Amino acid sequence: MTTAAVAPSQDRLQAELDRRLPRLRPPAVVMQPAMMGSARLTRYSFSRTMLRRAVRDRWRARRARFDIDERGHGEAVYEIDAGGHTLSFVAFTTTIDECEHTDRVIAERWEIAGALVEGDLTGEFLSLLRRHVPRQEAGRFDPRVLVLTRGNRSVRFFDYLVDALARGRQPDPDLVADAGYILRSTAFYANGKYGMRSFEGYSEDHPLRIPYRAQFVCAWLFRELGYDLVEHCARASGGDAAAPFDQHWRRYFGLGNATGLGLVPFAFKHPRVIHAWVAIREMALADVRSLPGNRDRLERLDTWIDRAHSHFVHGTDDDCRPFLNSVDVATVVLQIREAFDRCRRDPLPFDALYRWSEQRGPETAEMVVSLLLELHEGDDDLIDEFLTVDEHCPLDPAMTVGHLRAMLASRFEWLGQLGLDNEGADKWWWVISDNTEEPRRARRDGLEPARRDVAIDVAMRLWRLRGALDGYDDDAPIQRVLSEHPEHRLAAERLSVSDRAYTEPRDNPCSAHYLPLQLQRFQLAMYGMDNFKPKSTDWLRVTLFQGAPRLGDLGTDAGDDWVLPARPGGSR
Amino acid sequence: MAGPAADMGATVTVAPREIHDLVYRASRIAGCDPGTAERIAENVTLAEIHYGAAVRALCETLEAADLPTSAWATAPDALLSAEIAARSNGTASATFDPPAPLASIAASLQQSLERGVASTGIDGRASGATTVGAVQLHFVGRQAGAASGAPIDGARSDAHRIGIGVDQPWFNRLEVAAAGFLVAEATLDEIDD
Asked: What is the domain extent for residue A192?
């Protein structure tokens, strides 16, 4: 992928896809719920691209202030100079009783409340942040504030880590190594919520004018705070006997995250965004599958397979259904190792490995995709550009019914496979709770929507539109249909904007059989999260930035091979 | 970054997204289908950015009239039908009876312009609350349409960068009108059990 002529990024992304068309996985494979629900982080996940950008552009970061007491209560400020833009992560920390800990986004109290802000952190601004940030959704912000977040300490591990370091010891790997994090966040609000800066408010050359970059800068600094809190509390407790994390542990922990249903409406509301995420991955996969197997590439994949095994084999063996737990993933990686040993003399060994994996099912296929993409050397500038999507695509009122009918047949031919006329197809409706505006779903037989539904029932709406068009001639303008039946406007608009291959998860979120975890995992993997631990059908815990460079590592040769860190202390 | 209470009687700075989301929700609760509610939200948001007084104009309708049969829901359709005629015939007239608030068609006019259909008949000093009885539409071609949209794009960009000042009492009334879109957490927990 090379930077070429000036053209809208979507058109250029499409041109890149067109060039690879025979080698791309079709949407009928990629957009299936089971495949999306097996996705894994890749080289192009947002945590990776953010850190590569930070290293490449020589961002400088420092802990600017740390007024924290021996219990870990107080204020901390981390500062990043990102190409001349001063960004600060301002965190307010306390402790709450264990019984008040909850992963639900609706919790009212948090041990850490933070914000990523831009500009001079004057006394007045800090004072405002002090008042509003701990209140989270109840606070009121202005465009200096870019991201709002919060979280808690790990109940299981924070105190243990403090105690170990206070005694001058490193953690016992058998006690903590499957945890993967010190602090667990729940939300990273941005893009104009509660008065914060809109994404479109970043200037063209702003380092955060890449979707989700601000949130990932914030998350990375949140993770840094976890290390600093533990080491600070350990020093306060142990005095001269205390030790910091040693070189084996100082990067091992990431940031935990608990994720609920909020991701699902996003995926159904932003078809062109989803397309861009998937298309970037699929382009890279097509490129790698077409590579011959020279020694360097074969050895690099060997290394990544070994690394994945070492990482997962020390992870959790808890019940993670419908996903595999880490130990089971390690077994899959061993099978991948054996398959790759059989494929390595194939003229196209990476293609052969992928084709083998697809026969083994989604978990194996997506693990192979994740590993293969480590061999890809795409242009990060271009990737960033492709992620910045124009979602504005109003329906042309002069479009004929015949044209719309043809679009429906070509873009949504799969609707017929969803059983949309069956009982149970419309069991759930999606709703926003009055408590911190958390999306949830409700059964129709338990509560009437009464026009409070979040309209992500894309499949149902398009299915109904298809029926409504039956009464119109092919040459009638769609505007006539919509004037007479405004209830179909949303579906018609969707048909207009859904103009790319990978826009639509092929699922019905209102179905009795709908499993939110699949789409949640897809998005979390795109973000760069791993260690998927479902806690119900509707929410799960994950880890991000595990193994990533720390604040002080920026400016050195931090490298990009930090994912899938091995457990300190050797093999199990 | 003062709390809403501190701004009573004054102007509150909000992000465009906040206006959009609240208008969408208020429109749904007032009886509009999601597509119509989305269109009203786009019209009001752009009108508040470019002309002002759009939130006020919508709230006045929400509190006094039936939104799904009002100009907020129907005027854009009249405009789009006239746009189709203008693209065929070169010119056309969209008439609104009763006259429609400019805020009810602001984004629709902009979208017509992007498709190459320009409008005349709107007073340059109009606010979002100004009512419009008719607009004349002229097919000028997509390139000319895109070029004349630049000032609106500039205002939009500023709004995203620094926010929009909205009359606080009207914004509060919009929040109240939109609140019914949310369902009580306790209700949801109850049906989950």
From this structure: 47-260
Residue A123 lies in a domain: yes
CB within 8 A of A263, min separation 6: which ones? A519, A520, A523, A524
DSSP A111: S
Query: How far is A77 from A67, CA to CA, in rounded Å?
Result: 9
ipTM: 0.92
Q: Which residues of A touch B2 (CB under 8 A)?
A: 128, 140
Q: Are A555 and A539 in contact (CB under 8 A)?
A: no
**Among residues of chain A, what percentage have pLDDT more than 90?**
85
Contact A431, A260 (CB under 8 A): no
∠A115-A118-A124 over CA atoms, to 5°?
A: 80
A238 and A359 housed in the same domain? no
Decide if pLDDT at A4 tops 50: no
B83 touches chain A (CB under 8 A): yes
* A220 and A143 in a common domain: yes
pTM given for the model: 0.94
Is residue A547 one of the residues assigned to a domain?
Answer: no
- Mapped onto helix, strand or coil, the DSSP state of residue B135 is strand
Domain count for chain A, please give it. 3
Structure tokens at B14: 């909000």
> Do A538 and A261 contact (CB within 8 A), yes or no?
yes
Residues A105 and A161 occupy one common structural domain: yes
Last residue within a domain, chosen from A260, A284, A304? A260
Tokens (6 digits) for A555: 């400016």
Q: Is residue A546 part of a domain?
A: no
Per DSSP, B138 falls in state E
Which residues, numbered 127 to 166 in chain B, qualify as contacts with chain A under a Cβ-Cβ cut-off of 8 Å? 156-157, 159-163
Token pair in block for residue A482: 């919509």
Contacts of A128 in chain B (CB under 8 A): 1-2
Break chain B into its structural domains and give their ranges: 12-151+163-184
CB A318 within 8 A of CB A309: no
Domain stop point among A476, A497, A518: A497
- CB under 8 Å to A56, separation ≥6 — which residues? A380
Longest dimension (CA), chain B: 61
